[in-house]
Amino acid sequence: MTIRLRNALFLLLMAATPGIPNRDDDVPDWKSILTKSQDVRWPAPRAEVTWLSSLEEGLALARQEQRPLFVTLRCLPCKQCAVFDKDVLEGGPALDPLLRQFVTVRLTDAALIDWRLLPVEGFQDLDLSWWGYFLSPEARLYGIFGGRDDVSDATRISIPALQSTLRRVLAHHYHPERASWDIDGPAAPLTGRPRTVRHQPGWRDWARSAPEQEACVHCHQVAEVLREPAIRAGTFDKSRDLDIWPLPENVGLSIDRDHGLQVTQVETGSAAERAGLRVGDELAAASGRRLFGQADLRGVLHRGPRGAGEVSVQWLRNGKLHSGDLALESGWRATVLDWRMSISQGNIGVSPGFFPLPARGRRAPRGLEPGRLAIEPYHPRGPAAEAGLRGSDVVIAVNGESPDLTGRAFLVWFRRRFDVGDTIRLTVRDREGNDRTVEYVGLRY
């Protein structure tokens, strides 16, 4: 591929990606932006923290007061991130002095998110039940906050981490030269009707085949809606398209959780080490976007190369700006997916027809070896139940494979292997210790 063609394709991608500045003849002057000292003064804070329930109302108030917006999204039925959400709402001395500098908005239904104003696709990890956006009064995206991994949300976010991000956003928003930098996301269109998840191409097909819906749409279901067209067209790749939201560790970096941008470890031989990063460096920008916290870096990685490729990164070391490229090899994006609801119980592949509980009390009595599959099929239903699967059985193999998995880890494994119409053969052991095969054809739900 010629350099000219590669550059043309790059510019088309930049133009088509929400929230990413489109520059065809210049790049940000990161040295001036990131190292030039400036006395940034904040205005008098608002009298109190008031959580509005309307983003449009929040934008109007932000334009009136010329304050930045902090918009949180909370999927109320999900327990995940509930403690953090409560801590943010309660505020207190740790957060209130900073939150009073913002116009604050809290949304609690993914079905009501206006996609004209919040760039959900590409910027929000939809398997989380809490997320934060920082916007200018013109609805230009500054940055994002949120995150978790296969351990929990507490390994990636904290109140001190939010404090650090809030301070950086305020320093950026009130910098007198910010407008001339032009490094924020494009201004959102503030005319016309709201665009919600129900306007997405996959909504009708997803809603028609999904289980009975609750009053609200969960965030992980939004992820399913976005995948629906590719799944229907048969173009969804379970390897490539499920490598989502890579961690800093995927490129060889460990980041201090509370600081949000300080490097605490660089893996030997990693892309980060080859780029020149060292322990103690402070990440500052990547792929044309200023970073305000770890979530912004993960967003850049998420929107980055699907396979081998490069991600540009800038960092500060003792006040001096350094730049480099993360040279990424094929397979660099892979992470643990077991905790992701949009995969374990979503529209990827097919359901096994039961929830896989660990057969803790049944292994020894039925002569089952440790280290192999042994699950209790909780609430068999659909074709699995019709084929004779009972709750008293223990599933010990699936199509001859016997991985030592239970719960959502098994569901992810199962959905990645089987599709609609595939023949599924469960080897089960009954109360008497006898083995038999339960065979059925996979259905979506």
- Give the strand content: 15-25%
Give, in spatial order, the strands making up the sheet with the most strands.
1-3-2-4-5
Helix-strand makeup class: alpha+beta
Average the pLDDT over all residues and give the rounded result. 91
What is the count of structural domains? 3
Query: How many helices in DSSP terms?
Result: 15
Q: What is the count of β-strands? A: 16
- From the alpha carbons, calculate the radius of gyration and give it in angstroms: 24 Å
Question: What would CATH call the homologous superfamily of the largest domain?
Answer: Glutaredoxin
Low-confidence stretches: 1-25
What CATH calls the topology of the largest domain is Glutaredoxin
For the record, what CATH class of the largest domain applies?
A: Alpha Beta
The major pleated sheet works out as: 5 strands, mixed
Global geometry: globular
CATH architecture of the largest domain: 3-Layer(aba) Sandwich
- Roughly how many Å apart are the termini? 43 Å
Helix content: 25-40%
Description:
The chain is an alpha+beta fold and 445 residues long. It folds into three domains: 1-25 and 245-326, Pdz3 Domain (Roll), CATH 2.30.42; 38-237 and 333-347, Glutaredoxin; 349-441, Roll (Pdz3 Domain), CATH 2.30.42.10. The protein is 28% helix and 19% strand. It is globular and about 80 Å long. Mean pLDDT is 91; it is low at 1-25.
Keyword list:
Pdz3 Domain; Glutaredoxin; 3 domains; globular; disordered N terminus
Sequence-ordered SSE layout with sheet pairings:
Layout: H1 3-16, H2 30-35, E1 51-52, H3 55-65, E2 69-74, H4 82-90, H5 96-99, E3 103-107, H6 120-123, E4 130-135, E5 141-145, H7 159-173, H8 178-181, H9 203-209, H10 219-233, E6 253-255, E7 263-266, H11 271-275, E8 282-286, E9 289-290, H12 294-302, E10 309-317, E11 320-328, H13 341-344, E12 355-358, E13 375-378, H14 382-386, E14 394-398, H15 407-417, E15 423-429, E16 435-441
Parallel strand pairs: 1-3, 2-3
Antiparallel strand pairs: 2-4, 4-5, 6-7, 8-9, 8-10, 10-11, 12-13, 14-15, 15-16
Helix pairs in contact: 9-10
